[in-house]
Amino acid sequence: MITVAIIGGSGLTNLKNLRITRREVVRTPYGEPSAPMVHGELAGQQVVFLPRHGAGHTIPPHDVNYRANLWAIRQTGVSKVIAVNAVGGITPDYLEPGSLVIPDQIVDYTWGRAHTFFGSEHKQVTHVDFTEPYSELLRKALIAGASSAGLAVRARGTYAATQGPRFESAAEILRLERDGCDIVGMTGMPEASLARELELYYASISVVVNPAAGKVQGTIELKDIEQYLQSGMTKVRTLLEHAIPRIAQTASSAVTV
Length: 257
Ligand code: HPA
Prior knowledge:
Rossmann fold
């Protein structure tokens, strides 16, 4: 049985510590996922890995087929999903590049993305609860995994999902801050709400790779981001190794998400 699905973001197109057993090309009613699903073993558990931006990092955030990705994950029979997201830091405690955040809330600013399985073609109007967008069960496993690995993480934070692919203006970041957002990224939505529609447990490890626009002097430089992506993703791999055995122990029958 597969313990968990991992959706890798920028900087995490492969998991070095994953012992790969097979690759699976999946088709869904919504088209093809970003890449073949990579099955393997990590920390003694069966896991499946999907690079969100494609195996060669070619699919920009607004063109990711989020529905196909989540559908393909559900088809494997797994019920728990850990997403990895690169983000910019907005509020003072979240500015340090290379730091990890396990967010607990989301504000969605994206538009024009296929964002639901429950569109007008669906038999019945359906609404899902999204009060707590992330699974508390998975968040706790990630926080405990970080603590056992000796990794500092911010145990909560509000994630602003923006459309991209451009970065934000300084005024846009001030607006997000007034809205209560701590971090900003381009891939958190509609992934989280699609996971909820499919009744999947879902949580994110967000990696701060830059202070958001206007939060430090000057412009956002990709070469600086690159450096923190690498060091941040090394931490993510360590965190996953410690969290996955804990995720295996959490009862899938738990009533709370
Ligand atoms: N804004 C939006 N998305 C991001 C950023 C940012 O500053 N950094 C990494 N992903």
